[in-house]
Specification:
Among the domains are: 102 residues, Orthogonal Bundle (Arc Repressor Mutant, subunit A); 35 residues; 93 residues, no CATH class. The chain starts with 9 loop residues before the first strand and ends with a strand. The longest helix is centred in the N-terminal third of the chain and has 26 residues. The chain is mainly beta. Pfam families: Trans_reg_C.
Length: 752
């Protein structure tokens, strides 16, 4: 076959048109400008339509002066497929022939564009004139705004806040039902073995109760498109569907006597109210369950979009074979069509994936979310999906444009967004409560024998977890166990104090700070003689023998990861035997002059010597280091392994051994007080602040890198915890006496 000439041609194939000169591609009416490399690659394949184009020719044509890596080539081919909405598993356009090359599948029709008018032939001149006129108009507009609206400069957008309700039930969900905001929850009915659903009209301050003759689960699912709410019986033998009619105050109630497979989890109810998105946990796949016909859709009949999501889940789970899968999936169906949003998230990855239709083989948009996705809602038109992230930011995904915009909330606290009430209007919820210390029996077995590492995790009580706390009205945080007892910080009114509770449960106040003090970190030395910490961004040291407080002035903007340590050097071999009470190590972020050298200091791990008052840099771009003495009992006898644990500022940790044993790498959470090292293990607490999911403890072997997890049996845990040095006791902080405040906020402005 002869090589096709593409100069001044429009290439048509299937539902696509490519302007071979400009690189503009239209797929199913959606136009885009191709990247230059992708344009060259498609042009090369089209020129040889129906013929195999070898990998060597592709590289020689696109990279004549260098040899690209296989990853670079694969990435470019992936971009081309994405532009064409092609599927590598079932290609319609580009077929990859392993080890040989690429084949362009569909026939190509080349046509010349129609005759050009004068303005087309002189496009550059016309463009220059347009730019000049536009610039003059913009300059005139700027001048007008500056001199006619100078009084408005500096004014922040006015946000209107309307308090809607205060809820003391943590299982309440808020939805738009018949264009009115309603709170919905499940509770026990007065009748024995019965439940009722409460629907509270916030605007009218009225309630509607629907009583069911069976106990119901507290979790339910709502389809905005069909105005249908679905709830399941506790015995999982049937579902009740409540459909709210626009013209009738009485909802229609149907019962579906069916049950889901035991290994499945309901994710969402689609816009028709008849199909359930479900996670098939045993298969790590997404499926659909037809309520009307009481059947799980066979994998071969699933829409292409769900098959693609399952494939992505499989790929993410295969990235680290040694790690316990921590992948979570959430789905938000559109209220007006079969479109939907998917969030795939793990410790190291979070993405937003948008499908315009479940029948699409390729996602319309896929965006990485650096701060995760916490809660999300569609607007009533189905063209905007708004969500909060883990930094309490409010972000909107514009579905048609495939881009993210951020709202300027002027410092307003937004934990969850529960409803979209207009262009710049949202209903938000903030859950607040009193932080209290909770002591529990540690849920992992205490064995350090690596041969038993794969045993199932067990709790001290198989049927319950015993939690001990006190009833004093005060905030409690930053717990630190030692052999002598428990140190922690208590906040009452505007006063903050350091308290100590000995092993006989007797409390004493060690030190009370001045008013308006905020204690951010706390650590105790090995001899129980000194306490160090951060209060109001200042480093302090408290002598426990004399109860004398010393504030240490360091000219660093941000300090964290305070610890007592031996005088560490860059490796464990050079550690000296100086008492660990002499030195305080900390991570400093510095963009100003450091006190020690009066010169600009890099970010990294610093050491402060209490006796000499000298500061020295231990390691750049490092947050923390811990000397390790690990005991490996898998071999004959017990082998001791000396090592150094290093936490870098990209939140990746490594364990480097003095022997030839390979180093261990661990992905860490971005927090300060949520990890501890005890024995051979690193423990990390995954909190669940303001979510309904359970918190988890992650245990990582510092000898092998293997991980396992255990859920904690209570919610709303914060990222402070401590492990007793010689027993299986654990203390952590959770919020009690919770209440959720619903607020409507209007007048938000978009930053970009």
């Amino acid at each position: 076959m002869s090589i096709l000439s593409l100069q001044n041609k429009i290439a048509g194939f299937l539902n696509c048109k490519l302007d071979c000169n400009s690189g503009h591609l239209s797929v199913d009416g959606d136009a885009q400008k191709l990247e230059p490399m992708v344009h060259q690659f498609l042009s090369l394949l089209i020129q040889h339509q129906g013929e195999l184009v070898s990998k060597k020719i592709v590289i020689k044509t696109l990279w004549p002066d260098k040899e690209p890596s296989d990853d670079t080539l694969r990435a470019m081919v992936k971009k081309a497929r994405k532009a064409l909405k092609d599927n590598a598993r079932k290609p319609r356009y580009i077929k990859t022939v392993p080890t040989k090359g690429y084949l362009f599948i569909p026939p190509v029709n080349l046509v010349s564009p129609g005759p050009k008018f004068w303005w087309q032939l002189h496009a550059k001149l016309v463009g220059s004139i347009v730019v000049l006129v536009t610039s003059m108009l913009l300059l005139l507009l700027w001048y007008t705004l500056i001199y006619s609206g100078a009084s408005d400069i500096g004014k922040a957008p006015i946000i209107k806040k309307t308090e809607l309700s205060v809820l003391k039930n943590n299982d309440v969900s808020t939805h738009y039902i018949n264009k009115v905001v309603n709170n919905v929850w499940v509770e026990s009915a007065d009748t024995h073995d019965a439940s009722q659903i409460i629907i509270e009209n916030i605007e009218q301050k009225s309630q509607q109760k629907i009583v069911f003759p069976a106990p119901l689960q507290r979790k339910f699912w709502y389809s905005q498109g069909s105005q249908r709410l679905l709830v399941q019986r506790i015995d999982k033998q049937s579902f009740y569907a409540i459909t709210f009619m626009a013209q009738d105050n009485e909802p229609v109630i149907n019962e579906y006597k069916t049950s889901l497979p035991s290994d499945s989890e309901i994710l969402a109810l689609d816009f028709t109210g008849n199909m359930l998105f479900v996670a098939l946990n045993a298969l790590n796949q997404i499926g659909m369950f037809d309520l009307e016909n009481s059947v799980l859709i066979a994998p071969a009949l699933l829409p292409p979009a769900l098959l693609n999501i399952s494939q992505q889940m499989e790929q993410l789970l295969e990235q680290d074979e040694n790690a316990i899968p921590d992948l979570s999936v959430q789905i938000w169906p559109s209220p007006v069509s079969s479109a939907f949003i998917v969030n795939l998230s793990s410790e190291a990855h979070s993405s937003l994936i948008y499908y315009k239709s479940s029948l699409d083989e390729v996602a319309s948009s896929e965006l990485t979310l650096p701060n995760g996705l916490k809660s999300g809602v569609w607007n009533t038109r189905g063209d905007r999906f708004s969500f909060t992230d883990n930094n309490a930011g409010l972000i909107a995904f514009q579905a048609e444009e495939g881009r993210l915009t951020t709202f300027n909330t002027n410092g307003e606290l937004i934990n969850q967004v529960v409803a979209d009430c207009g262009p710049n209007c949202f209903v938000i919820s903030n859950t607040q409560g009193m932080p209290k210390l909770n002591e529990i029996t540690f849920t992992f077995d205490a064995l350090h024998n690596e041969t038993g590492f794969n045993l199932n995790v067990f709790a001290s009580e198989q049927n319950a977890q015993v939690i001990r706390t006190n009833l004093m009205v005060r905030n409690e945080s930053l717990p630190q166990y030692t052999q002598r007892g428990l140190y922690f910080v208590s906040q009452h009114n505007d006063s903050a104090s350091i308290l100590f509770r000995d092993n006989k449960n007797i409390e004493s106040t060690l030190y009370t700070f001045a008013e308006q003090a905020s204690v951010e970190e706390l650590t105790i030395d090995a001899d129980d003689s000194l306490i160090a910490g951060i209060v109001n961004e200042r480093l302090f040291v408290l002598d426990l023998n004399t109860l004398k407080m010393q504030y240490i002035l360091l000219k660093f903007p941000k300090l964290s990861h305070i610890a007592f340590s031996q005088a560490l050097s860059s490796d464990a071999n050079n550690a000296n035997n100086e008492s660990n009470s002499t030195n305080i190590v900390f991570y400093a972020q510095s963009n100003v002059f450091g006190e020690a050298t009066n010169a600009r200091q890099p970010n990294g791990l610093y050491q402060y010597n209490i006796n000499t008052q000298q500061i020295s840099l231990l390691k750049e771009n490092v947050k923390a280091q811990v000397l390790l003495a690990l005991v490996d009992e898998t071999s004959q006898g017990a082998t001791r392994n000396q090592g150094l644990f290093t936490l870098y500022d990209n939140d990746v940790a490594s364990v480097n051994f003095q022997s030839n044993k390979p180093a261990i790498k661990v992905n860490m959470l971005d927090c300060i007080s949520c990890w501890r090292i005890k024995g051979n293990y690193l423990y990390q607490l995954q909190p669940n602040k303001n979510t309904k999911a359970s918190a988890q403890i992650v245990q990582t072997s510092l000898l092998t890198g293997q991980q396992r997890k255990q859920s904690l049996l209570f919610n709303d845990v914060e990222n402070h915890f401590s492990l007793h040095p010689s027993s299986n006791q654990m203390v952590l902080t959770s919020r009690q006496q919770l209440q959720t405040q619903l607020t409507k906020i209007e007048g938000l402005s978009q930053i970009y």
